[in-house]
Amino acid sequence: MKWIGCACLLALLVLVPAPDVYAQLNVDASTSNYSYGRMRMLVQRSSRQYTMYQYGVGELSNTRAPLIDTIEEFNRSLVRVRQSGPAQGLPPVSDEVVLQQLDIIGKKWERLQEIYTFQPYKLALHNELLPTGERKDDPVLVRYIDRLTKDLLGEFETLTQAFVAYCDRTGSQACNTLLLETGGLMQLSEAIATDILFAKLKIDAKSRRADLRKKSGEFASKLASMREPDYFADNQPALVKPILATIDAYWQQLKVFADMTIGRDEKQIDIDLMLRAERRLLDEITNLVDVLSH
């Protein structure tokens, strides 16, 4: 019966069409807003992709190419937010607090990028970074990477607070805090996929299930708030409503895998199928970001 459930989900992933409203939006993914939320998602994604590569899982079993693509997109995004201003709906680069926080993020990202881009993998680096007692339990630095990732995501929380403070202080109409909220959904989606992967690989599975339960509830709560009638009252509600409905449909598909993991049934999960659901969810969230950016 468990495999039948997965087969039915695969059918949904293939058959659920995108609504006709997308043709009206003229969405170009290459011009989507590079919000802080999306950058947080890229940080989370790089950790998940590194883990898949080291463990030989799914689409990264024999190649680091998707991981390198993520690294390059993050680097472009970091340059872009440094050069941004009111026209991009982000704090101008003259904002000292934001600049300082971006410097901190850039330096911490460099450590992650250094590990990600070593080829071939160097044991010397492993021995340098980890105390002797931890090396046996973390042979390819997955737990170490996870700690660095969580630390970097914490710096993004500080950056977001600085952005909100800037908006409150200046009253700038260019500050689109809805983009931060929507971008936050991106990072949550990727974090949920990462927790599912770690649990399936038996990496701190118990704590991952607890985190997954919390993040799933947070995602559902945020999405429910966004679907309230007045949430996007001044932001093209006629276009936003059907996109939110599609986001919810794809969230329900990813939630099947989250619920399986929470219920200790992750052995039955096909990681590539799970990630296909997550990518479609991210695509719809990106469509929402594009609408809010125009």
Walk me through the structure.
With 294 residues, the chain is mainly α. It has two domains: 33-175, no CATH class; 177-294, Four Helix Bundle (Hemerythrin (Met), subunit A), CATH 1.20.120. The protein contains twelve helices and no strands. It is globular.
Give the helix/strand class: mainly alpha
Low-confidence segments, given as residue ranges, are: 1-34
Question: How is the main sheet built?
Answer: none
End-to-end separation in angstroms reads 46 Å
- Give me the number of helical elements: 12
Task: Determine the fraction of residues in helical runs and give it as a percent range.
Answer: over 70%
- The domain tally reads 2
Q: Based on DSSP secondary structure assignment, what is the total number of beta strands?
A: 0
SSE succession:
HHHHHHHHHHHH
Q: Which geometry do the CA atoms define?
A: globular
Average pLDDT score:
80
- Please tell me how large the radius of gyration is: 19 Å
Strand content: under 5%
